[in-house]
Amino acid sequence: MTVAISRRPPVRLHLTNVAGAGASQLLQSLLPALERDPGVVVERIELPDRGKLADYRSSSPTTVAEVYRRRLPNALSRMLECTWLAGRFDGESPLLVLGDLPLRCRGPQTVFVQTPNLLKPARARFGADGIKYWISRTLFRLGMDRVRAFIVQTDVMRDALERSYPGVAGRVHVIAQPVPTWLLHSGLKRHARVRAPGQALDLIYPAAGYPHKNHALLSRLEAGAGWPVEQLVLTLDAAAHPAPGLSWVQCRGFLSPQAMIAAYSQVDALLFLSKDESYGFPLVEAMFVGLPIVCPDLPYARTLCGDHAFYFDPDQPESLRQALLALQSRLEQGWWPDWRDRLAGMPPDWETVARRMLAVTCAEEAAKP
Q1: Residue 77 and residue 291: Cα distance in Å, rounded?
Q2: What biological-process terms (Gene Ontology) are attached (predicted)?
Q3: CA-CA distance, 297 to 335, in Å (whole number)?
Q4: What are the pLDDT digits (tens) for 248-288?
Q5: Are residues 161 and 189 in the same domain?
Q6: With bands split at pLDDT 50, 70 and 90, how would you rate the model's confidence at 5?
Q7: ∠ at Cα 22 (263, 96), nearest 5°?
């Protein structure tokens, strides 16, 4: 009698361009879970040469983790990496690209798309950012036919990606993610306001200074317009302060996980200003903790928050003021949000996310005898 021996398929991970704060934070939770998955063997990890992931150390002695060194300016280096130099990533084993752009290499490839900047814009963008995003969209279009599957985080992002690139229709899989590991294991749950009744709002907006994060809206607020806010903490450096004339806006710089947990344990609500997100991790974090949310009335936010958030027009200061006044009024009445229905569909942990992503990545290999 012959006993069949199960074979754990090898997988390669590519994240050479993941250096931003949000994407890096996600992968700091996801990478260890991918390596721990019992169904695969991670044989190689291509790491960035900057950011927190440059120092990532594999948990397996058999995994080769190598930093991809860039000798040219990042934009030019990235363009070459995705096209003429992509042959170095040829391989028979499945390649999971965690940095948005396809590679013109041979072998089974899956791409995890985390940025909305790849979507076709409603109107032309000019300047350095406009050119950069146009190049990224061109690289995506050139390489998309080499990709077996794409992974995104929401139905809204899948639909938008398929509208921007009709050729990817039917190959886009939706896999949501939970909060980062540091918050998942914190035990923090809020059920009421910490501050005494009658006080103005204590808010936080954790976001990097990218244009789509819409910090510029704060520069349009009038200091004497009756804002019901005592403090709004931004995770920007003081030099990037978007509204120096507003005494209640404070720039604290990047906050460590411990500092974020401390902030979430005290603030009255999350304020989110972003005009464009593929997911919106701070929204998920706030729901997980149990915080009220004030955010733009846009599809990505509606998809995550449903009817429980306080919505505003991200281009209208007065709309934001009215949303904050509505929140303050509800808090004075003893209201507090219940996000359980919105969190019901979220994966319980990062092991679940890793298993689902690897199932997509290794779909054909799993079917082989």
Answers
A1: 41
A2: lipopolysaccharide biosynthetic process
A3: 21
A4: 999 999 999 999 999 999 999 999 999 999 899 999 999 99
A5: no
A6: very low
A7: 145
Alpha carbon distances (Å) from 30 to 111, 146, 223: 15, 24, 42
Q: What is the pLDDT of residues 296-350, one digit of tens each?
A: 999 999 999 999 999 999 999 999 999 999 999 999 999 999 999 999 989 999 9
Q: Please report which confidence band the pLDDT of residue 364 belongs to, taking 50, 70 and 90 as the band edges.
A: low
Say if residue 152 is in the same domain as residue 199: no
pLDDT at residue 4 above 60? Answer: no
- 151 and 32 within one domain: yes
**Same domain, yes or no: 354 and 341:** no
- HEC secondary structure over the chain: CCCCCCCCCEEEEECCCCCCHHHHHHHHHHHHHHHHCCCCEEEEEEECCCCHHHHCCCCCCCCEEEECCCCCCHHHHHHHHHCCCHHHHCCCCCEEECCCCCCCCCCCEEEECCCHHHCCCCCCCCHHHHHHHHHHHHHHHHHHHHCCEEEECCHHHHHHHHHHCHHHCCCEEECCCCCCHHHHCCCCCCCCCCCCCCCCEEEEECCCCCHHHCHHHHHHCCCCCCCCEEEEEECCCHHHCCCCCCCCEEECCCCCHHHHHHHHCCCCEEECCCCCCCCCHHHHHHHHHCCCEEEECCHHHHHHHCCCCEEECCCCHHHHHHHHHHHHHHHHCCCCCCCHHHHCCCCCCHHHHHHHHHHHHCHHHHHCC
Nearest one of 78, 58, 76 to 66, comparing CA atoms: 58
Is 120 contained in some domain?
Answer: yes
In a domain, 54, yes or no: yes
- Both structure tokens of 340: 């359980």
Do 123 and 196 belong together in one domain?
no
Distance (Å, whole) CA 51 – CA 44: 19
Report the CATH number at residue 136.
Answer: 3.40.50.2000
- Determine the structural domain holding residue 24 and report its residue range: 10-178+348-362
Count of structural domains within the chain: 2
